[in-house]
């Protein structure tokens, strides 16, 4: 949308061409989503209080969480609205990747919205059944996967890149690519959802990973940089740099209100959508393996649930005091803020390791 205005202004005065700069648009996208969140956040939270849209807390969880009952939820609505708006303003509408990412956020945000709504309606921590949620996620992931395939312009876009090694790729074909896309999207969506259990725990890793993906997008979309750093050149992915920046801004704006003690919770509407969006961006950039590394905290949370369920079915005993694993640490007596910051630090370390792959090739 903004690019159309730039085109008009440039015809009037060529000096306006500077506004077309990718880096400038990325900075402005981040600032717009951040400032809108900060400006409207308190009003949004007040409305949620007014309509009694409050979190229903699990009775079998840590006792300290019972005081959080009634805290406004569906904060994902604030994240996604500012992210989508800023992306539409500052990104080139001719880029198909914009619409793929926005469609992903709407589809998975919609699934999360239904889940949150049912929880509020029933005044229970049970929303959609796991089967219903998986069905919705599966249909969404399959649809997005086929859309990505139609947008592919080069065979490299269906190959699996092996990070830290020079010119090492794994040819998986279209079918393999679709299967990989399905598992990455559904897996990431559920992983972020499981991690969203403490104040600010999930959103900061999302911000850090979005920032790293923004750098990969900038390099992949620039022929000179991608050639110099031995990364695949993927035309159009430069716009993902702007989209990631908008996501960082929206995340920071939400964190302002979600940090401990939280004034608002993300809810499934936010967590399911954010996980899927990160997955789709990583897929478009061919950085699925690095997403797995950067999202190590999300992976650990997911594995802790899988281990807990499998161990309990086998022995009728708990492997962890409580799953996901952040609740295990709470049960061990570690304070919530300490757990949150340590998980943030772990994500930062993993993101830095992933960024090192740019030169270690």
Could you explain how this protein is built, in words?
With 361 residues, the chain is an all-alpha fold. The chain has a domain at 24-159 and 174-285. The protein contains 14 helices and two strands. The chain has helices at 2-12, 22-50, 76-90, 96-122, 130-151, 173-195, 203-220, 223-228, 238-258, 267-285, 288-294, 296-315, 325-331, 336-356, and strands at residues 159-161, 169-171. It has a two-stranded antiparallel ribbon. Strand 1 (159-161) and strand 2 (169-171) form a beta hairpin. Helix 4 (96-122) packs antiparallel against helix 5 (130-151) and helix 6 (173-195) packs antiparallel against helix 10. The longest helix is centred in the first third of the chain and has 29 residues, at 22-50. The chain starts with a helix and ends in a 5-residue tail after the last helix. The model has no long low-confidence stretch (mean pLDDT 91).
